Amino acid sequence: MSRSVSPVSTSVAVAGYIRDWIHAGNYGAGDRLPPQRELAELLGVSRVSVREGLKPLVEAGYLEMRRGASGGAFVTELTQPIEAWRRKLRNQMGELDDVVEFRVAVESRVAYLAALRSTRTELAEMRSAIRAMRAINGDGSDQHRAFRQADGRFHDALGQAGRNERLSDAVHDARSEMFLPFDVLSFDEPRGAVITDHQAIYEAVRDGQSDRAATLMAEHIHRTREQLRSFVIDDE
Which of 68, 147, 149, 161 has the fewest CB atoms within 10 Å, i.e. the most exposed one? Predict the structure, then answer.
């Protein structure tokens, strides 16, 4: 089967990286991105490429640019990209199922390997992320954002524990495609269920129960899919 390959400009790649960071929860509503100089160094590109890469994200409603000493690129409330994402999935629900299958395949395998390969460092990071999630109270945007970031920390630590760089990168890609925006969802966030899932996965990894860790991760992702279905389909 032949496939056409389109060249991707550096600025488009920069926009993709930053968009993925937002989707994966590394940056939430109200967060300020690093200065363009730091972004250029981090991504290994020119400042011109960073500046050009930010423009489509502003147009798509991900970022707003503020001037002055305390200015910069700030993540918006994400209303515009969330609504665009919802419309897309309503028209292509099969795509959500594809993403879920991708996440199950990748993250279940990572959980399996983590149970065999994790070190004290990754286990400590997982515990720290779970503690941070338990400590969050209230329903304000700051609390939602902090919960989402702690959730991301847990999955990142699990990815590192799997000791496979390609799989770790795939975990990040899969999570960014799922784009579960805890800080702007209109339904009540099931924090308790998420924490319970993470605690069970952590214990399976800690105890070296690789098959159980993989099964628990698959169940966790499928529950996330049902949350997304409720948001995309039922919440008109």
Answer: 68
